[in-house]
């Protein structure tokens, strides 16, 4: 690439190299600072609603940051060539196929503003010599701004290449339109997708932690088809790491066999929406599944199979993670960090309508054991179950899904 400014002096280069090495150890914190604001600034509901795409966008941002830092360790203060690797290319292809056109220039402007402030603070803290500080800031400002311009151009070029080579774009874009609530005639959707819209639907989202597990994702889709008992299935590639699935039939699907099949695949995560009928049911069940997926990722839960009907209240409670943490602590008190068996006994007791015999059967425990655990748990809790069972159940459910929410610092 053409060099657009003079090389820095050795002293300036050494200072930049030292700063970049330090920042390289803090990449996750740096990315966390700007990835969400840059996404929100693009104002694309389809992108924001899909947790798998959000994760891929975060990985793209992390890759960009690491590329600039490592390049400046090797050649401080020089122009940095953007790296558009296989994972970034796959992400761009997925966006294009779904008709999502993010504004990379807006995203970079927001990210650059936040990261420059962080860089400025690091430079001021590290450079005691004012003249050296000015030189470091001057050179790195040129390098960062040019890197942003070159990166936006590279991403746009990748988008154009994806649009020219994507033969499945029309079908996937149609699914995206229906799922996002765009007006659509039911018979037109059925004709183009070859999938019955008038029946009952259950939407699923399957995802993996990284593209290297894609074989497991393909195997899981086959397992779902087999376990669905002959019901019609529609599968769409949502991203390199996720797939959308709809199962339809004349009656509501029993997903017991599907859940069992997915439980046999260690790498796969699944989120399931509530059943719905017709075109609106197709949409709403899918939106439920997306919300369940976002909840699991947001809370860092290790759950493999999550039905939105089971976590809808928790989804509403945990939109603000710090607020959810306060709610759990204020409700449960010392019980929040007590033996898991105590909390599970109390939660089951509440869910069973305060019936100890039913709770004991569900827990495969003796009735006296359950009574002792419930009494002990209630004694530890800040809010007593008899005073506010709804708050108690909600707090216990939050902790059941996200066991580390109390011990993790959310400040």
Automatic annotation (TrEMBL):
<feature type="domain" description="CdaR GGDEF-like">
    <location>
        <begin position="191"/>
        <end position="294"/>
    </location>
</feature>
<dbReference type="InterPro" id="IPR041522">
    <property type="entry name" value="CdaR_GGDEF"/>
</dbReference>
<dbReference type="InterPro" id="IPR025736">
    <property type="entry name" value="PucR_C-HTH_dom"/>
</dbReference>
<protein>
    <recommendedName>
        <fullName>PucR family transcriptional regulator</fullName>
    </recommendedName>
</protein>
<comment type="similarity">
    <text>Belongs to the CdaR family.</text>
</comment>
<feature type="domain" description="PucR C-terminal helix-turn-helix">
    <location>
        <begin position="342"/>
        <end position="395"/>
    </location>
</feature>
<dbReference type="InterPro" id="IPR051448">
    <property type="entry name" value="CdaR-like_regulators"/>
</dbReference>
<dbReference type="Pfam" id="PF13556">
    <property type="entry name" value="HTH_30"/>
</dbReference>
<dbReference type="InterPro" id="IPR042070">
    <property type="entry name" value="PucR_C-HTH_sf"/>
</dbReference>
<dbReference type="Pfam" id="PF17853">
    <property type="entry name" value="GGDEF_2"/>
</dbReference>
């Amino acid at each position: 690439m053409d060099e657009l400014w003079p090389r820095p002096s050795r002293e300036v280069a050494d200072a930049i190299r030292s700063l970049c090495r330090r920042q390289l150890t803090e990449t996750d914190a740096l990315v966390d600072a700007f990835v969400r604001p840059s996404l929100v600034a693009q104002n694309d509901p389809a992108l924001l609603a899909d947790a798998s795409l959000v994760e891929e966008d975060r990985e793209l941002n992390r890759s960009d940051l690491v590329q600039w830092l490592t390049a400046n360790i090797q050649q401080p203060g020089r122009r940095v060539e953007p790296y558009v690797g296989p994972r970034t290319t796959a992400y761009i292809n997925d966006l294009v196929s779904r008709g999502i056109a993010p504004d990379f220039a807006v995203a970079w402007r927001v990210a650059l503003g936040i990261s420059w402030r962080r860089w400025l603070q690091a430079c001021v803290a590290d450079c005691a010599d004012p003249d050296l500080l000015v030189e470091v800031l001057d050179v790195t400002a040129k390098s960062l701004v040019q890197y942003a311009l070159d990166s936006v151009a590279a991403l746009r070029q990748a988008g154009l290449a994806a649009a020219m080579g994507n033969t499945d774009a029309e079908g996937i874009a149609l699914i995206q339109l229906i799922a996002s609530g765009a007006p659509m005639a039911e018979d037109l959707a059925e004709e183009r997708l070859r999938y019955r819209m008038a029946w009952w639907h259950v939407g699923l989202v399957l995802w993996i932690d990284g593209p290297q597990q894609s074989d497991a994702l393909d195997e899981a889709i086959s397992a779902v088809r087999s376990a669905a008992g002959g019901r019609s299935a529609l599968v769409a590639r949502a991203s390199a790491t996720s797939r959308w699935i709809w199962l339809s039939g004349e009656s509501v699907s029993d997903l017991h066999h599907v859940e069992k099949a997915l439980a046999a695949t260690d790498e796969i995560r699944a989120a399931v929406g509530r059943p719905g009928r017709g075109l609106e049911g197709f949409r709403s069940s899918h939106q439920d599944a997306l919300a369940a997926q976002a909840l699991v990722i947001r809370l860092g839960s290790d759950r493999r199979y999550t039905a939105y009907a089971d976590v809808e209240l928790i989804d509403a409670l945990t939109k603000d993670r710090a607020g959810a943490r306060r709610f759990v602590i204020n409700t449960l008190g010392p019980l929040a960090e007590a033996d898991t068996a105590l909390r599970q006994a109390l939660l089951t007791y509440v869910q069973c309508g305060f019936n100890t015999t039913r709770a004991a059967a569900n827990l495969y425990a003796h009735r006296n054991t359950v009574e002792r655990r419930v009494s002990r748990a209630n004694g530890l809790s800040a809010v007593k179950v008899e005073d506010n069972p709804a708050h108690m159940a909600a707090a216990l459910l939050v902790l059941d899904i996200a066991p580390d929410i109390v011990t993790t610092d959310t400040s």
